[in-house]
Amino acid sequence: MKLWGGRFEKGPAELFEQFSGSLDFDRELLEADILGAKAYASALEQVGILAEDEKERIHEAFDKILIESSAADFFEGAADEDIHTLVIRKLGEKAGDLAEKIHTGRSRNEQVATDFRIWVRKQIRSAQQRLAGVMEALLEFARREPAALLPGYTHLRRAQPILWSHYLLAYFEMFSRDWERFGAAYRSADVLPLGSGALAGSGFPFDRQAMADELGFARVSGNSLDAVSDRDFALDFLYAASVTMLHLSRLGEDWILYSSDEFGFLEMGEEVTSGSSLMPQKKNPDALELVRGKTGRVSGHLLSLMMTLKGLPLAYNRDLQEDKEPVFDTAAQLAGSLEITRLVIETTKVNAGAMETAADEGWSCATALAELLARKGVAFHRAHQIV
């Protein structure tokens, strides 16, 4: 099934259909597409295109499709161009000719933009929830080891002794900023484009605020040209995810070092480590190495979408089909990285003795000695030289 084709005498070449099809990845938007279509059906009733009973039949059909979509074979044999055409085809199977009305006055441009925003909002809330889990694990670790000392480092050289709990709370602060950053990304995504048409608005007097209220959007878009081509909200999500991954990678790098024989500060749990196929003694920090590796993948997705957008004229262009896979993969990698990092934190133990011994060595209290002399009246520059 296609949502276009009236002016064409020939169908698209099979090669072009394979090249342009997106169902294999945009199926992620199934639930969002159905939610958006239900809200649009309500709007069609308000402007007299659908009778109340017709709207109810469409809503019931959509609900059935959503339930059926959980079946393992739901997409089996589907040859639809994208998720939007699949949903319309499924609607036709359940509601008959009534399905022909659902696209009245609606462009796939605004439909895609709406679906994508619904999906991104949900992923942001999930990311914030997982971030909160990591932050709670850090707090609990700090509570377990309130008196453990650690040599603080600058330039990867011992600098000044600090509490292990103070070290953990540094990462807590980073992840707190990430949580706020996702909140800003959510506000960026929380704008309804539905009602914008293909680019020039709708010829029907839709109550856009009513559609926004039904879908839980805080506000409606102000310019139809911008609404169908705006992907800033996706960039904001990718940026927030990239910075979060960067922070996870920094923690991972610390703990990979701290758990090595050379440091001996940490013992990572067997739940998150692996062995060697050749060397029986090895206990490798693979979980954190994978997080560190996936960070480059996620930040690459941010650059990928930026390059897709950089030369696009207004308004919608098919290039924007390339926005989905980077965002979908980022959400998956971020979710997995947050979950595994939480488990690493929960299963890691400190070697407080080794940390305190390292803190005692290497003149890590030199600054305190210089400050003591300064309190006795010695000019600090001179005290620094003396120490």
Order of SSEs:
HHHHHHEEHEHEHHEHHEHHH
Number of helices, counting only DSSP H or I runs of 4 residues or more: 15
Lateral arrangement of strands in the main beta sheet = 1-2
Question: What is the distance, rounded to the nearest whole angstrom, between the alpha carbons of the first and last residues?
Answer: 81 Å
Query: Helical amount among residues, as a percent range?
Result: 55-70%
Strand content: 5-15%
Overall residue-averaged pLDDT value = 95
Gross morphology is elongated
Q: What characterizes the major β-sheet?
A: 2 strands, antiparallel
| Helix/strand/pairing category | mainly alpha
| Oligomeric form | single chain
In the predicted model, the low-confidence regions spanning at least 5 consecutive residues are none
- Beta strands, count: 6
Please state the CA-atom Rg, rounded to the nearest Å: 28 Å
Verbal overview:
The protein is mainly alpha-helical and 387 residues long. The protein contains 15 helices and six strands. The chain has helices at 14-20, 23-26, 30-46, 52-68, 83-95, 108-144, 164-189, 208-215, 224-229, 232-258, 286-309, 324-347, 352-360, 366-375, 380-386, and strands at 149-154, 157-163, 191-192, 219-220, 266-267, 349-350. The chain has a two-stranded antiparallel ribbon with strand order 1-2. It has a two-stranded parallel ribbon with strand order 3-4. The longest helix is centred in the N-terminal third of the chain and has 37 residues, at 108-144. The chain is elongated and about 90 Å long.
